[in-house]
């Protein structure tokens, strides 16, 4: 049985992340992790005519780099899982249009990066695919215009607002030995804490993150000490403090060895409010930065919890609260 | 109060409070400066170039709205608004910015279904409720 406890999958076979690819926009390339991403574009259009096309280019770029690094062609990949933030997941669907790979489209808002990684690993573990390709993307301007206001509209944003990361991250999963093993995944439940402010998604998502992390510890009978790093996707300045407090109340002290991808991607002087958010935030930081740190030996075992605010502008306008979800994946570095 | 049990109330202490005093001061100063500049412009049109009071008023409005659109196109107006808040939003320049930003945003969907269709999606509210209030005031004025 691969299901352990209530919500956690433990993979029986050795499943590896064989290669990754990341492509980012100008602010992320200019940020503290800029050099660790494979490609960085100088402007939000990335050489395309529209922002939506730019986002698609980022995803395509991340996938191409990933496949090149993994030394595989699209024909050797058995399943492609991808998602983004746009309506009808257009970036993922249109990217998949150009690939000769069976495709499963996924939406979990900003939790999609770990959702695709977990499901991809499960498909490989279960023998439904020899190699799976997973990818997620987001773009600041496409997200702003779909979820908020025109990018150039003069609106004063509160300190709790986050800045959608422009970028895409891809990973190739397979059973051929690689440097990083995907050993377990905890699938989150949708948790709605009743908050309604779309300019403070960190506070809306923190309970979902705390729930998934706590359930993970319970299911596997583990504690924060079992991990070198527990990292959330995009809780940013406000949510990351709340999740620590929530877990403390549950009896888990994660203060040492906890971080948030949204707090790593920009420098404070870039003035991105509470930090980065978006599908790409967790994807590019994990696949670009964290795995590199694992390679260097900084961490050996990490638990990446991607957090998603299942936000809809229509629902917000109808005064509905924001449901949230978080999926966590355990990645371990392979010795040698 | 525990976060787990009373999340909606307990979470408030983690959420940053907007600095109302500083924001009001910034809005007052920036909004005031823009209005003073516009008033100076009106005086210039009247006194130096000999326009009538009405014509000078219209020319001044055209000029400040033109400048707001220019700043929007240059990608600077949102930075101004982040600092000035209401001092940049409630002015006529804010209305110009709302039209220009929406038009720019949707130009990739073409002249009709993009620009024309979306141009008033933010600024339209001013027109709708402006008309409603004008109607109500008109009725009151007629009765009184």
TrEMBL record, chain A:
Entry's Pfam families? Answer: SpoVAD
According to UniProt, the name of this protein is Stage V sporulation protein AD
Which SUPFAM superfamilies does this one have?
A: Thiolase-like
Specify the species.
Anoxybacteroides rupiense
């Amino acid at each position: 049985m691969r299901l352990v406890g209530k919500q956690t999958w433990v993979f029986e076979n050795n499943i590896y992340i064989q290669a990754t690819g990341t492509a980012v926009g100008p602010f992320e390339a200019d940020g503290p992790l800029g050099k660790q991403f494979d490609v960085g574009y100088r402007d939000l259009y990335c050489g395309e005519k529209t922002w939506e096309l730019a986002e698609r280019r980022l995803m395509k770029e991340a996938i191409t780099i990933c496949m090149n690094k993994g030394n595989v062609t699209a024909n050797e990949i058995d399943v492609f899982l991808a998602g983004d933030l746009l309506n009808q997941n257009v970036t993922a669907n249109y990217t998949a249009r150009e690939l000769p790979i069976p495709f499963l489209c996924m939406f979990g808002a900003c939790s999609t990066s770990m959702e695709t990684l977990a499901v991809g690993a499960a498909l490989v573990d279960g023998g439904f695919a020899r190699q799976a390709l997973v990818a997620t993307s987001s773009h600041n301007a496409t997200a702003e215009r779909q979820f908020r206001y025109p990018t150039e509209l003069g609106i004063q944003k509160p300190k709790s607002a986050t800045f959608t990361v422009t970028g895409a991250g891809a990973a190739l999963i397979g059973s051929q030995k690689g440097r990083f093993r995907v050993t377990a995944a905890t699938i989150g439940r949708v948790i709605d804490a009743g908050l309604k402010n779309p300019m403070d998604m960190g506070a809306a998502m923190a309970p979902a993150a705390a729930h998934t992390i706590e359930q993970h510890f319970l299911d596997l009978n583990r504690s924060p000490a079992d991990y070198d790093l527990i990292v959330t996707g995009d809780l940013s300045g406000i949510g990351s403090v709340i999740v620590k407090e929530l877990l403390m109340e549950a009896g888990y002290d994660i203060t040492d060895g906890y971080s948030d991808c949204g707090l790593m991607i920009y420098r404070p002087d870039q003035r991105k409010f509470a930090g980065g958010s978006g599908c790409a935030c967790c994807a590019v930081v994990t696949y670009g930065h964290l795995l590199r740190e694992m390679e260097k030996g900084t961490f050996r075992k990490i638990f990446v919890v991607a957090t998603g605010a299942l936000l809809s502008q229509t629902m917000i306008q109808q005064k509905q609260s924001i449901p949230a979800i978080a999926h966590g994946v355990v990645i371990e570095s392979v010795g040698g | 109060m525990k976060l787990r049990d009373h999340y909606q109330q307990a979470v408030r202490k983690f959420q940053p409070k907007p600095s109302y005093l500083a924001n009001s001061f910034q809005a007052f100063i920036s909004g005031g400066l823009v209005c003073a500049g516009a008033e100076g412009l009106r005086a210039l049109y009247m006194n130096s170039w000999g326009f009538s009071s009405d014509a000078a008023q219209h020319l001044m409005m055209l000029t400040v709205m033109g400048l707001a659109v220019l700043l929007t196109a240059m990608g600077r107006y949102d930075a101004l608004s982040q600092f000035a808040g209401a001092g940049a939003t409630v002015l006529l320049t804010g209305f110009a910015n709302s039209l220009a930003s929406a038009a720019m945003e949707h130009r990739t969907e073409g002249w009709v279904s993009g620009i024309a269709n979306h141009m008033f999606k933010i600024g339209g509210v001013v027109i709708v409720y402006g008309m409603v209030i004008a109607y109500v005031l008109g009725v009151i004025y007629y009765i009184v």
